[in-house]
DNA sequence: AACACTTGCAACCGCTCCAAT
DNA sequence: AATTGGAGCGGTTGCAAGTGT
């Protein structure tokens, strides 16, 4: 069929927004709203931009409730846990973090958090190697390798890491593993924490993520069902990754339909149902 | 000081979804 | 039921700023 472009590219400005454009858009939206029609908005506002660009600029930068600045440890944990659970559903992940946009979260994950994970993974691998490996008496065996593909996120391609069987991570294909064990990823024991020494912390924290209807409860009690992703990386889980906090399911999503759509349409969703009060 | 390389992030692209017709 | 057009999403790109040599 083919689709018409969202705007006449020859007649719209592109590239970085000037302060004047920002001001024009902001003032217009604050005065008139978007009217639910981004396509017509730029002309009404007197901007030589396409509606799509205006929408993005507003949502990702100009909105008054946007939070700029560094991500906190709590936010790291939320991202980590929800990515583990949902894959790259940035809009849903961002919806749990007031003031953060999907673009923010996505960029943060791609540029920083993923590297942080890999770094910790590398460190843990070294630690495990030192702690658990017997003194080498002969040439080391050729170890199996795992390419991590999680929840259909086929692009998530951490470096192929040699895994020692004693470390507890199997070489079974993660995708199969995930579908097999849903909704209890740990039930058949295919995935276990490779580093027992990091699971002893005990504390809890409740993170308010919205003033009205959303909070996440974090504690170290029990083994969460969300740890598959991080376990596959060599972490005990999100809490393992970030200071010992373990995510405990207690999500209150502003728009439940989003979550059901996410969980039911392609079997990449939540391990268990959110509850509402 | 100058250049090369890396990093972070704003912005764009192309696609799917969905409501309206 | 088929088509259309807008909204929204995830992936990718481009560039400015920062850092290293």
TrEMBL record:
Superkingdom per UniProt: Eukaryota
Major location category of this protein: nucleus
GO molecular function, one term: DNA binding
Family annotation (InterPro entries): Homeodomain-like_sf, Myb_dom, SANT/Myb
Protein's UniProt keywords contain Metal-binding: no
Record localization: Nucleus
The keyword Nucleus is annotated on this UniProt entry: yes
This protein's GO CC annotations: nucleus
Keywords: DNA-binding, Nucleus, Repeat, Transcription, Transcription regulation
Residue span, Myb-like domain: 9-62, 63-113
One Pfam family from the record: Myb_DNA-binding
Stretches assigned to the HTH myb-type domain: 9-62, 63-117
Entries under SMART domains matching the protein: SANT (SM00717)
PANTHER family for the chain: OS09G0431300 PROTEIN (PTHR48000), TRANSCRIPTION FACTOR RAX2-LIKE (PTHR48000:SF74)
The protein's name: Uncharacterized protein
Organism: Ensete ventricosum
